[in-house]
Design goal:
The chain is of the alpha/beta class and about 220 residues long. The chain contains 9 helices and 8 strands. The chain binds D-xylitol-5-phosphate and zinc ion.
Length: about 220
């Protein structure tokens, strides 16, 4: 059975999380399996409510279906929703391994981390490009992972925003070498080296990965191989 890819400390080899937002939704399990067979370490599942972000995507039924088809695969769920604490239990019951919530919508980030841990999942905290990293620094010790958005969330296929690299370096200094930092948005072979150099240990990819006819090559390049 799979476990969270954030349960262990980060190592020198970056992890790759395949964002299924760019997968073929009509053949989702097959396309997700293709990414895992290509070397991706987990599925990154982007949940959007049409309110926190201007798009709708998927919910817990998709997670439980993927879990049934792929019980060996770790699910990293990114909640881009306005009321995440109302939904975490549903996702945990669907069998996901990790839940990331956005700092912009949390009244009490430490309590959020505790509630996610109580459900048996690892916990991540995310910030949008415009959000001050100081909001993350105060609470990051309560979480297993920090997610830095490198696009305005809502859609795959957008251009990487290099200005978030500075925020990433600040988080890396604060978290020490073993903490996980995930970069999400516009991560591709051309931008991955800068992410790794800034201290990212987890690279999320949707369009660069699912849009390639050489998925193993993309995974390898993202890792720095
Ligand atoms: C954006 C999502 C990302 C997105 C990444 O709102 O959080 O995970 O799917 O897509 P790419 O890799 O195409 O930028
Ligand atoms: Zn995401």
């Amino acid at each position: 059975m799979a476990r969270s890819i954030f349960a262990d400390e980060a190592t020198a080899t970056p992890l790759v999380a395949a964002s299924i937002l760019s997968a073929d939704f009509g053949a989702l399990a097959l396309d997700a399996r293709r990414a895992i067979d290509a070397g991706a370490d987990a599925l990154h599942i982007d949940v959007m409510d049409g309110h926190f972000v201007p798009n709708l995507s998927m919910g817990p039924v998709v997670c439980s279906a993927l879990r049934d088809h792929m019980p060996d695969v770790s699910q990293d769920v990114h909640l881009m929703i306005s009321n995440p604490m109302d939904r975490i239990e549903q996702f945990a019951k669907a069998g996901v391994h990790h839940l990331t919530v956005h700092v912009e919508v949390l009244d009490d980030p430490r309590a959020a981390a505790g509630a996610i841990h109580d459900l048996g999942c690892t916990a991540g905290i995310a910030c949008n490009p415009a959000t001050d990293v100081a909001q993350m620094l105060d609470v990051i010790d309560a979480f297993d992972m920090a997610l830095v958005m490198s696009v305005v969330p809502g859609f795959s296929g957008q251009a990487f925003m290099p200005e978030v690299l500075e925020k990433t370096r600040v988080l890396r200094d604060a978290m020490g070498p073993g903490g996980h930092i995930q970069m999400d948005g516009g991560v591709a072979p051309a931008t991955a080296a800068a992410c790794r150099a800034a201290g990212c240990t987890v690279l999320v990819s949707a369009s660069a990965l699912f849009g390639s006819d050489d998925m193993p090559g993309v995974v390898n390049t993202l890792r720095g191989g």
